[in-house]
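Tutorial handout. Part one gives the primary structure; part two gives the three-dimensional structure as tokens.
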Amino acid sequence: MEKLKIYLETSAVGYLDETTSPKEMAEMQKLWELIKNDEYNVVISEVTFNEIDRNKNFEKVETLLSFIAEISYELIGINDESRKIAEIIKQNGLIVADKHSNDRLHIGCAINSNCDVIVSMNFKHLVNVNTIRGVRAISILEYNRNIDIVSPASLIYREEDN
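Part two.
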């Protein structure tokens, strides 16, 4: 079976060191171990790095960057096609506020990179039924690709765990 190609959105990476949410942090750390064991093909965009760099807590930035340094991943930039997809997301009534343009760019980068899954802990804007269904429909209709948006927990449990 071919490995899933997963896009790591900033909030997922951030939960590697989110001591205020120990359950979610533990789930992300379990997923991280699977990633380190080459269970998934990983994509990270410059959107994620830009958001991490904007964090005012220098220690948190260093911690997250050191986590990322532990894994193999494909780094992708923001290009015209990613921006176009982000605009289609907005035009279809998903994540319309300009202050959330990076959320749309994450989706654009993931679709443009042929990812199977976006991993996020952003339940307000990304990991919710309306966004998941809307993004899936746009991805299939416009780009003939299927993509899901999931939390880390969705990827850490497998059949052999039952």
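Part three, for discussion. The chain has a mean pLDDT of 94. Residues 56 and 62 are 11 Å apart (CA to CA).
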